[in-house]
Amino acid sequence: xxARATLSHDDxxxxxxCALPLEMAAAKLxxxxxxxxxPRPPTDQNTYILGxxxxxxxxxxxxxxxxxxxxxxxxxxxxxLSSFRSIRFGLMVGIGGGVLNxxxxxxxxxxxVSQPTDTSGGVIQYDLGKVLSGGQFQRIGILxxxxxxxxxxxxxxxxHHFTEESRILEFISEVRAKMTPRxxxxxx
Length: 188
What we know:
It comes from Penicillium egyptiacum. The protein is α/β, with parallel strands linked by helices.
């Protein structure tokens, strides 16, 4: 891996987009190290936090304050990919808006990782459907499946959960240790 002082746009392979500043703060706390900013092309209006998690160099971007939704997310992603051309995969990680499923007890604060099934790419985008008169949701489109590199990582994570204790509490403890009291109050 290149020395930290000589990293370029091409050294970043993971793009992480957040919808809210609070989510960006949490993403920043997940980084093992923060890297210096890089020059931004004039066509890129994003501001980035650069760093690494393990041996992966990560670029984090956030939607503009007050500008939410698909158009803002696509604009941020397009500009990120234009500036960081070696991105292998992108993530949008944040606070979920809700789960429309009577079979699962999923609450705010739960960690949810989607995976594809025979009839779904793994993520259900609720504006690709409509609610019928009985309250049932009918999908009218689907999103693509995640890249294989993420699906194989998910399979490995699932295997670890069968054979080892979860490290979630350890990771949460590490993040809390990095927080200032002001930031911690927003996460409790």
